Amino acid sequence: MMSAKVRSGDDVIVITGQDKGKIGKVIKVITRDNKRKVIVSGVNMCKKHTKPRAGSNGSILSKELAIDVSNIATLDPKYKTPTKVGLKVIDGKKVRFAKVSGEVID
Q1: Radius of gyration of the CA atoms of the chain, in A
Q2: Of 13, 32, 62, 68, which one's alpha carbon is 20 to 30 angstroms from that of 19?
Q3: How far is CA 93 from CA 4, 43, 52, 98, 105, in A?
Q4: What are phi and psi of 87, to 5 degrees?
C-alpha cells in the first residue's frame, strides 16, 4: 500500500486556477475512481441557495468545492514555501518529509 502525499490537516497552497496563491488547510481527501481531489478551507468557494421550508427561512450558504490534487502543493513547515513530499523510513516507520528543507511533516 502506498502512502498518501497529501492528508487531511496539511497546509497547502494553490498553484494554479482561479484561487492561485491562496493558502488553506486540507479538510478532506476524496479518492474515488482513481480521481484524487481535495477540499481546502477557503478555496474554490461557491454559493448554495436554499429554499424556505416550513419552520426555516431561505438562505445563501458558502461552501468549498473539491479541487484536483495536482493543483495544490504542500507547504514546507520550516520555510512556508511550496515543496514536494518525499517518503522515508525512520525507526521502522514510514514518514513524509519536505524535500526543500528535509523537515518531517508528520
Answers
A1: 17
A2: 32
A3: 14, 33, 52, 16, 13
A4: -120, 135
Asked if 38 contacts 25 with a C-beta cutoff of 8 angstroms, the reply is no
**pLDDT band per the 50, 70, 90 thresholds, residue 74:** very high
pTM across the whole model: 0.83
**What mean pLDDT value characterizes the chain?**
92
Please give the DSSP secondary-structure letter assigned to residue 71. G
Spatial separation of the C-alpha atoms in residues 32 and 28, rounded to whole Å: 13
73's CB contacts (< 8 A; 6+ apart) are 12, 13, 15, 82, 83, 84
Between CA 41 and CA 47 the distance in angstroms is 15
Mean pLDDT of 31-39: 89
Q: Is 53 exposed, middle or buried (0-12, 13-18, 19+ CB in 10 A)?
A: exposed
